[in-house]
């Protein structure tokens, strides 16, 4: 359809512009719309209602945005009448009967859906400018409206109520009801639910949080949520969000997406692509049910999430991960002597949420193994340190699997002994979410030469070697050699990433000026700019970094913003927003109560326990950067000034992604070793012009740990000691450390409780020395460091 001529030719004079542009049409009693020939249009032509194709000769009656035209099949559908029963392409119709009932018929007058309304006056069907399809009585009374029965999309002013919910589609091409829904629960709280064929569970807000912990109120039972065209979504349970582009009057929708994420989308004009302006779940692997049973999800920012079967298991459906994996020809059923038949495969950092038999506190690994061997239904167990002891969690089912370096527990998978050498079977990014494909389309708008998208793919394909730095060089080079075209492309890219993040918003300069009371209180100053303390309009205390504007183009700023926004970890500094306005470039971060590690180190307030925790937390943050992102993000400037401490002295790594963009003035050629890092913390690779890998961060981390141990900034030590090379360097370093550790400790030992923590101290020294090995292959990975620190094992 689409290009099909309109029945209503009353307004033919208007057709000079375009065949659909200025037509509106009401359906009166006794008339019908059919698949072949008609659709309704809202008076402003933004929405259409009618039949649209959902498959071979299959149609649904629904409402969609008129642009792009239906013939492209890329329409944005906002409502469907009985999505689960598409009708035949011929002789199906929707009729407004004389008794006031609106009925959708399939071929042979088979009723697929009806409005169940009655009216003896003359009613008519009308599509309003809001996208609401209404059945109006003669007196203007609304007998029925599509807003009262949403499908998977909310429009501005359309309320989600106690009686309605958004249900995702089954897939991108199948509009049938899927497994994910957004609804008001019995406790008046908005939630996201996975309701799969075998199990169901709530995954948002985080299921282990009580409502009030998630910032929700359970008291108001009016159960109503709406949003406006400026991007303010608010609900009676106190859940309020502003989209990143809040304030602009745009076309907007909130949609329960097929991948289980709730997203806000916006676009400027009718034909533009939609961009994500908010999403509920930052870490898409946390969405339940995506990879099915016996598998786990890993997340790669450049390509989305990926499912993999656990070792020994294989995929059930070759095309649909929601079916998960099943045992590849073995069974775990009861055996008389399980010790002889089964063993365990150790899988670090894999979380399997839920489905525990029970928790067994104070269980050693061997006790836990024995327990699981003898529990016939035990498929695996978690062995996890918490509350000062190891705890054992035998699992009845393996679901909601998620591999993340941030998870401290280890999974031990029970398998027949013959299969203990099995490895995970990876999927080829089949779960990669819709967002990625949308971004692809956006990039193509720009100059295809020098596409960043290509760089990204290239990067992840190579496993992330040298990528960031090359990326940056490329970035500068291209920026210098080309003009505005590149800028707008970068901006598109940046926005693309930005969209993927949530909690973000764009601030105006005057807002931030007000928040900082005219940039009054300076709390830090670095190469890239000055940091001020500010209080946002919602009372949150923020650190607002004003970048040196002269160096910072809009696209660069957005690129930086996007990089940070994409990454979320408790040991990485969180970004709340940004401002790009004329010459002004500002970034809004969470405020860190205790400033930088550098400052607190010099003031000697940190005892050994805290120092250990800081070393561990920093390692976790870096491990996340390196591994979750497949080495895509190297920090390249790890130093105490970039490790910030919150009110509990939890460390958060700051400034990743930023420094490389700021130091561009120093960049003279593609010799990037001159632009990265800080003297004293830089790995020998920089000096020797060797490939830059994540091990440069490991090296810098090692130096930071040494600094925490000795209280001395290694840059103050003999220059050769850090930047020489070879065995002598290491010897001198060890000597230097030992000197300070044994005798003249710069800090009074007793005061800092060093005596009690001797074991931990030794581990820190050992870790630090391994990290600063000259040979980068001899250095441990960041996640290995986390393991060593967690388990005190070396
Ligand atoms: C269609 O219905 C709307 C709302 O009831 C009314 O304002 C408009 O005049 C009608 N248009 C036509 C062409 O009947
Ligand atoms: C529709 O979208 C797909 C990708 O989803 C794209 O490949 C195709 O070109 C689009 N078609 C039109 C006509 O825009
Ligand atoms: C329909 O007609 C009946 C009686 O003929 C009347 O009682 C009723 O109020 C009418 N309903 C409407 C919606 O006009
Ligand atoms: C769409 O999904 C439903 C529910 O899973 C299924 O019954 C139906 O066959 C699917 N339709 C198509 C065209 O694949
Ligand atoms: C957002 O909407 C809610 C409810 O409509 C309103 O109370 C609130 O003031 C709005 N916030 C902003 C910033 O407009
Ligand atoms: C409950 O929420 C609704 C909608 O947000 C609001 O209008 C109403 O005032 C609230 N009631 C109470 C008692 O807070
Ligand atoms: C844990 O178990 C060991 C030996 O089984 C016991 O000595 C220790 O006191 C237990 N610890 C706690 C906290 O219960
Ligand atoms: C083990 O699983 C089987 C089937 O999955 C079930 O019938 C049985 O009750 C389970 N046993 C225990 C102890 O949970
Ligand atoms: C598993 O691998 C190890 C070494 O890689 C080998 O010695 C052992 O025989 C293998 N076991 C099985 C059951 O294949
Ligand atoms: C891309 O580069 C090729 C060769 O380097 C050139 O022929 C082509 O015109 C370029 N395309 C655009 C859109 O600049
Ligand atoms: C850590 O350093 C910050 C910044 O200098 C300072 O405000 C804070 O008080 C220090 N912490 C302690 C416990 O002294
Ligand atoms: C990069 O810089 C180093 C020292 O700063 C120099 O030795 C080396 O030759 C330079 N490499 C290139 C490719 O310019």
From TrEMBL:
GO biological process, one term: recognition of pollen
Membrane topology: Single-pass type I membrane protein
Catalytic activity: L-threonyl-[protein] + ATP = O-phospho-L-threonyl-[protein] + ADP + H(+); L-seryl-[protein] + ATP = O-phospho-L-seryl-[protein] + ADP + H(+)
Alphabetical list of InterPro entries matching this protein: Bulb-type_lectin_dom (IPR001480), Bulb-type_lectin_dom_sf (IPR036426), Kinase-like_dom_sf (IPR011009), Pan_app (IPR003609), Prot_kinase_dom (IPR000719), Protein_kinase_ATP_BS (IPR017441), S_locus_glycoprot_dom (IPR000858), Ser/Thr_kinase_AS (IPR008271)
Binding site for ATP: 545
Gene3D superfamilies: Bulb-type lectin domain (2.90.10.10), Phosphorylase Kinase, domain 1 (3.30.200.20), Transferase(Phosphotransferase) domain 1 (1.10.510.10)
Positions in coiled-coil regions: none
Entry-linked PANTHER family: OS07G0415500 PROTEIN, RECEPTOR-LIKE SERINE_THREONINE-PROTEIN KINASE
Name the UniProt record assigns to this protein: Receptor-like serine/threonine-protein kinase
Organism, as annotated: Rubus argutus (Southern blackberry)
